[in-house]
């Protein structure tokens, strides 16, 4: 029996009774924010007297930053600024989830609030209509710290049979994938697909295409929903880029990028231009493609297991061992998008997309 949390074993029929009680015209709004680690998500809930019609109807709030690695105890109040509203797939309509930016006591962005600068960068290049699609890989773990459903002693069969697989001997934890997918659709998160990954208990979902700042907003909320769904099932989703050492694939967050010009006829030349410029900033980008200045990604980008080496920049059509891959279809059509395969699974999508848009803007003005 795989290890699951005690909370997941609470009587769900009892829960259902309370969840079906009418809520007398009130609206529960759950505020979500990124904590001081730059990876962790926090949330808390309040009652509003009526259903907000848009994010503008949701008031600012605050929290104790000294408990989230975000402030000293002596000056610990942080502001929560609602930026993006979703439906709540757990407590259902009319209740909401709202993603927030965090501001410090002086109303400047908190250290791990990269949305503020990302938004500025996106506004500057708005005319290019930059689209992103991100492929979020993650790995399920039991509460015992072992990959979910792996044998207690030893290892599963070597990789080969798991990617896009079906069957109890191949696909571990599909309930989570399917429930998360539905939760995203209900919430209004722009999820566009999912698949089982190369390592057993490793999965991926894709979000996109999203224009500009929406990419970061939707991916962060998709991550929140993933952690929340996993909590219900009593397992843990980790975004560690190399959760199991050895001959097992790591986890990335491939980032697909296109501008209006790239998507139009003959757009391939603009893709090639962008790739050339990206090559010049390789080291700079690697430093911000995980929360630990490349140290997390160093375990993953080895040049093996469908990755490029962290030290080299490379690009190629249909090449999954390159830093940048141009999908075969894009090579054929001579227009479309390219894929940056370097971001780690635990990257901040605001930082990654900011890098791409500020970079592209220079060449297209
Ligand atoms: P892969 O073959 O790399 O596994 P996936 O199907 O997992 O590809 O993911 C493809 C991603 O590309 C999706 O997130 C999708 O939203 C994104 N995408 C598709 N078209 C575009 C485009 N024109 N610009 C940016 N992203 C795009
Ligand atoms: Mn994919
Ligand atoms: Mn993948
Ligand atoms: Mn990919």
UniProtKB/TrEMBL annotation:
It holds the Pfam family Gln-synt_N. GO terms for molecular function: ATP binding; glutamine synthetase activity. It catalyses: L-glutamate + NH4(+) + ATP = L-glutamine + ADP + phosphate + H(+). The keyword Membrane does not apply. Its main location: cytoplasm. It is found in: Cytoplasm. It is an enzyme of class 6 (ligase). One of its GO terms (biological process) is glutamine biosynthetic process. GO terms for cellular component: cytoplasm. InterPro entries: Gln_synt_N (IPR008147), Gln_synt_N_sf (IPR036651), Gln_synth/guanido_kin_cat_dom (IPR014746), Gln_synth_cat_dom (IPR008146), Gln_synth_gly_rich_site (IPR027303), Gln_synth_N_conserv_site (IPR027302), Glutamine_Synthetase (IPR050292). It comes from the Eukaryota. Keywords: ATP-binding, Cytoplasm, Ligase, Nucleotide-binding. This is Glutamine synthetase. It comes from Anabas testudineus (Climbing perch).
């Amino acid at each position: 029996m795989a290890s699951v949390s005690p909370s997941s074993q609470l009587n769900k029929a009892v829960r259902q009774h309370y969840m079906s009680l009418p809520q007398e015209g009130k609206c529960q709004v759950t505020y979500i924010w990124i904590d001081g680690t730059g990876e962790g998500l926090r949330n808390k809930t309040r009652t509003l007297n009526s259903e907000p019609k848009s994010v503008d109807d949701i008031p600012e709030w605050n929290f104790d930053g000294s408990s989230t690695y975000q402030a000293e105890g002596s000056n610990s109040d942080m502001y929560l600024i609602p930026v993006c509203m979703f439906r709540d797939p757990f407590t259902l309509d009319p209740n909401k989830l709202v993603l927030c930016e965090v501001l410090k006591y002086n109303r400047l962005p908190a250290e791990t609030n990269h949305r503020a600068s990302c938004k500025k960068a996106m506004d500057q290049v708005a005319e290019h209509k930059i689209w992103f699609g991100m492929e979020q890989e993650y790995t399920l773990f039991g509460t015992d710290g072992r990959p979910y459903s792996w044998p207690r002693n030893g290892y599963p069969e070597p990789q080969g049979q798991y990617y896009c697989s079906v069957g109890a001997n191949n696909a571990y934890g599909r309930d989570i994938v399917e429930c998360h997918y539905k939760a995203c659709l209900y919430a209004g998160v722009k999820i566009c697909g999912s698949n089982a990954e190369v390592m057993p208990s490793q999965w991926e979902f894709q979000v996109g295409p999203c224009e500009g700042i929406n990419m970061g907003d939707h991916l962060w909320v998709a991550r929140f929903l993933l952690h929340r769904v996993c909590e219900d099932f009593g397992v843990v989703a980790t975004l560690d880029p190399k959760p199991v050492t050895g001959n097992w694939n790591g986890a990335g967050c491939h980032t697909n990028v296109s501008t209006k010009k790239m998507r139009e006829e003959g757009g391939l030349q603009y893709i090639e231009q962008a790739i050339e410029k990206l090559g010049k900033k390789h080291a700079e980008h690697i430093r911000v493609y995980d929360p630990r200045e490349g140290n997390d990604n160093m375990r993953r980008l080895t040049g093996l297991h469908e990755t490029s080496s962290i030290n080299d920049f490379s690009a190629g059509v249909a090449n999954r061992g390159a830093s940048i891959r141009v999908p075969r279809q894009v090579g054929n059509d001579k227009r479309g998008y390219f894929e940056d395969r370097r971001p780690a699974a635990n990257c901040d999508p605001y930082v990654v997309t900011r890098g791409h848009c500020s970079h592209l803007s220079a060449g297209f003005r």
